[in-house]
Specification:
It is built from 19 helices and 15 strands. It has about 700 residues and is an alpha+beta fold. It is flat.
Length: about 700
Amino acid sequence: MQNSINTITENKRFQFLLFFFAVIAIFQIFIPYKGIVFLEIINEVLILSFTALFVLNLILIEFKKKYHPLKITSSFLAAFGLLLMSIIVLNITMNVFGISHSDFSPSPGLFEKIIILLFNSVIFVVSVYVLVSLRELFYLRTVKNINTYYNAMIVFIVLASVTSVFNEEAYKEYNFIYLAFTVNAIILIFLNSLRISWIAFLRVKQKRQLLLVSVILVVLSIIILIQTTDENFQSASKSFSYFLHNFNNLIIINVMIYSFVIFFTTLFHLPTAEVFDKKSREVSSMQYFSKLINQALDSKELIHTISDLGIEIGGSDAIFLNLDLDGDSKVIGVKNLSDSDANKIAAYTNSLTPGFGVNYVVLKEFNNKQHPENRFASVYIAALKSYAKLHGHLYFLKYSEISLDEEDKKMLETFADYSAIALENSYLLRESIEKERLEKELDVARKMQMSIVPAEAPKLRNAEISCSFIPAFEVGGDYYDFFTLSENKLGIIIADVSGKGISAAFIMAELRGIFESLTKLKQEPKDILIFVNQILNRILDRKSFISAVFAVLDLETGELVLSRAGHCPPVLLSNGVINLIRPEGIALGMNYQGKFDGFLEEVKFTLKDDDLLFLYTDGVTESKNSTLEDFGENRLYEIIKNYGDCSPDEITNKLIKEITIFSENNSQHDDISFIILKWNKNKTGEING
C-alpha cells in the first residue's frame, strides 16, 4: 500500500514538472519578452524555480538508493559527453541552415527559438544531474554535520548565476556584485571539494580507475569551458536564460576542481592502498566467518565459503581443503585449480609437513621432476584443528616463492582454526538435528493439525456427512472444515498445502483463521477463494501454494455451489453414475495479478435424493503398495460406486479398510483426508456445526 502511495505521489510530481516545463517552453517560443525587463525577470524566475523543483525531485527519486562513488563519477563522463554532443549539433545546425549567433538575439525566429529551447534543455538536464550527483559524493562517508558548508556553496552558486546579468555591458556598473558572488562560490566549491573521505574506502583497482576517470573529467571540463566562450554557445545560452548559462558554467567548474582534488588525493592514497585493502579484507572476512560458525548447517556451503574467504585472507592464487573423513583423506573445496592437480599436490606434501601449525613448502622439486606443467611455486599448509583434533589441512597456493611474515602466518593459522571449529560445528549440528528434527517437528505439526481439523462431522437435516483425517508419518498440510453461513446454508472446505512438515501445518493454521473470518462476510465460494488468495499474498512464500475446494450447500433445496482452486475434482455419484466436478481454477498462491480471478469458475447444481458427493486430497489416491503402485482414482471410484447405497460412515470405514490393505507393506507418505456427503431430503435433523 505504501509503495502504491509513493508511486502515485511521484507520478504527480513528475506531471507537475512536465506542466511547468511546458509553461516555460510556451513562454520562450510564443511570448516576445526580449527587451522587456519585467518579462525577462519573469523568465529568469520561472527557470530558477523550475531548476529548484527539479533538483529536489531528483534527490527524492533518483538517489533513494546509495550508488557507488566510482559509478557516480563515471556517470559524469556520459553527462559531459552529452553536453559536448549538443554543442557540436548546435554548430552543425547553425552552419547547415545558415544561422548566425546574432539571429539568436534580440528577436529570434520560431525555428531559432526551438533550437534554443532544445539546446538549453540538454544544458539544464546535465547541470541538474551533475549537481545532485556531486551532492551525493559530498555527503558520502561523512561523520560530521556539514550541511552549512554545502548549503552556503549552493546559495552563492545561485546568487552568482542570478546576478550574471550584471556582467553584460548594460549593467557594468554592478559587475562587482556578480564578481563577488562568483569568487565566493568558487572558493566554497574548492573547500567542499576537499571533503572526499570516501576515496580511502576504495580498493586498489577502483582507485586506479578513479585516477583515469578524474583525468578525463578534467580534460572534458576544460574543453567545455572553452566552448562556453564561443559566440554561438553564448548567444544560444544567454538568449534562453542568464541564470542557466552561468549556473552551467559554475557546475562545470565544480566538476573540474573536484576532479583535480580527486586525482591528487587518489594519487596520494595509492602507495598504502594495497595494505589497506588487505587489512580491510581480512577484518571483514574474519567478521563474516565468525558469524558463520554458528549459522552454517550445510557443510557443502560452509566449505565453499571457506575457499572463497581463504583466497581473500591468505592473498593466495588457489586454495583447497584436504579433510580426514572416516579415516580417508579427501580433497574438497578446490578453487582456481583442477581437482587432479590438488590431489597430486596434497599427496606430494603429505610426508613433508607435520600435523599442526602453518608450514611452507616450495614446489620447485615437485614441478621439475614430476609435474612441470604445475603453475604454482609454493604452498602454505595450515592445520584444521579443533579441541586438539586434526580434521585435515587447508592449502594456500601461490604463483611465487615469496614467504609470508609472522603476522600473516598467524592470520592463516587463525583462519584455519575458525574453519576447523565451523566444520566441527557443522558436523555436530547436522547429526543432532537429523536425530531430533523429525520427532519435534512431527509432534508439533501433528498436534496443530489435529486441533485444526474438526473432531466430528456436523449433524445436518436432509443430509449426512462423514469425514476422516489420517495424518502421515511426515506431516502434510491437509485441512477440512465446515462453516454455518446462515440458517439454511453450510460452507464446506477441503484444502492441501504444497510441501510437508511444520511449515505446512502453520500455513493451515493461518488458513483456518482466514476462512473463519471471511465466511462471516461472504457466502459465494468464488468470492471467498478470491479474497483468501489476496490475503495469502502476505503469508505464502513464492514456492508454496494451496489447492482447495469450497462448496456451499443449501440445506433446504439441496442446491450446491462449488469452486475449485487447483484441487482434486470432487466426485458426484448420482443414479449410480460417477461424475467429476471440474470447474476451472488454479491453486491459491500461484498468482496474485488477476489470473487467479480470471481462471476461477463457480458451478451450481442441485443434489437429488441419495446423491453422494466425495471431496478428498491426493493422499487418498497416491497411497502406495509395496511395488510403489498408486491406489489410484479407478479403485476409489469403484468403492464409491459399489457402496453408494450405504451410509457415509459405512463408506468411510470401507474406504479406509481398502486403503490400509492396499498399502500395508509401504509406509504412508502423505495425509489422507476426505469428506463424504449424502443428500436425503427425507432425513430430519438439526444443524450442529
